[in-house]
Amino acid sequence: MKQNSFKIASLGIQHVLAMYAGAVVVPLIVGGALGLTGEQLTYLVSIDILMCGVATILQVWKNKFFGVGLPVVLGCTFTAVAPMITIGGEYGISAIYGAIIVSGLFVLLISTVFGKLVRFFPPVVTGSVVTIIGITLIPVAMNNIAGGEGSADFGSLENIGLAFGTLLFIIILYKFSKGFIRSISILLGLGAGTLAAFFMGMVDFTEVGEASLLHIPAPFYFGMPTFELSAILTMILVAMVSLVESTGVYFALGDICEEKLDEKDLARGYRAEGLAIVLGGLFNSFPYTTYSQNVGLMQLSGVKTRNVIYVAGGLLVLLGLVPKIGALTTVIPSSVLGGAMVAMFGMVIAYGIKMLSQVNFASQENLFIIACSIGMGLGVTVVPEVFAEMPAAISVLTENGIVAGSLTAILLNLIFNEFGVKKSKVKETEIEVQQAS
């Protein structure tokens, strides 16, 4: 019995380590881009870790109203990083949380019917959206490589060396390691880069010393939320893309655990995510989605019990209640983060391309959808003032590259692949490919 408990605990710790880098890096990136103080950044990291645990437990705990009941780990979604930075820069941090709360309520409202709406978000749409999001993140990484926008030593040789040294360490780990070590290569890279920075005198532990040992989270830490239509539309799109990704993870886990999922199971899973997103908005953390890296870890270990994930969720909650642990992550220099960001954000783009690989490229219509949506998304991101003179009702949809590109993909998919078009053999083949995936 003791041996079994030790095994479950050790596997739970492994799941925490596998997702920890993603859980920590998102608040560091967003908080850094929004210019938060060390104290605010410590709170953001701590509350995010705690809410990852809460979101995970909500999803694993299957009941009448929510929870898919599969051994799935939830964490903050990378697809929300660029939108949150854009919203925060334009409307302030309060608008981020207003948009997150509304998007979570939206997910709760559509949870029972989203299974039927998935067909409007085929890989040609979701792949384009994720690719656009990844592209818009790269400038954030490059600014951090140089030391962070506005820093006194921006572009110094020390910053460049640290950034590319961190990236090289991650690449070497990824090349020569396997299994669990490979899955936490980003986390190990951040640790190695910070250690190197410490010996260079570039690490300040002041915030760790000042952080308290225990903190009870409070709602609306950053003030009452505000609601902007453009911000809300952006986060709803992010939530929809996350739900499509989560659906794939649910079915993959269902196969691994030999459990057949029905529409009610999917609806409960969507509701759990919607509830986690609302709680993220209320407690000033992030939107949450399923983490596919933990599915890979489950396949490697061969252990499929939900008890392991309950342990992982509980550990995340405990870690989130100790601000000193959160403060430790804030000592990571911007340049070290930047080196890791190149790999992480590049993977977002690569994942978008992987999603697009499910698309039938024999269809010229699909090529046109991808071309126009990515072109529009990148164009508005690079030249945001292009639609500055448009009426307010329209500029809401065009002032953000992610919204403009995503809506272009959705609209063109409806025109070419859904409404009023006689389905050819090519189209029928594409539907079969999508259903098989």
Task: Explain how this protein is built.
The protein is mostly helical and 437 residues long. Helices cover 72% and strands 1% of the residues.
Sequence-ordered SSE layout with sheet pairings:
Layout: H1 2-33, H2 38-60, E1 74-76, H3 81-91, H4 93-110, H5 114-117, H6 123-145, H7 157-176, H8 179-183, H9 185-199, H10 206-210, H11 229-256, H12 263-282, E2 288-290, H13 292-301, H14 306-320, H15 323-329, H16 334-356, H17 364-382, H18 392-398, H19 401-418, H20 425-436
Helix pairs in contact: 1-2, 1-3, 1-13, 1-14, 2-12, 2-14, 2-15, 3-4, 3-11, 4-11, 4-12, 6-16, 6-17, 6-19, 7-9, 7-16, 9-16, 11-12, 17-19
Family: Belongs to the nucleobase:cation symporter-2 (NCS2) (TC 2.A.40) family.
Subcellular location: Cell membrane
Transmembrane segments: 12-34, 40-58, 65-85, 91-113, 120-142, 154-174, 186-203, 229-253, 308-326, 332-353, 365-387, 393-416
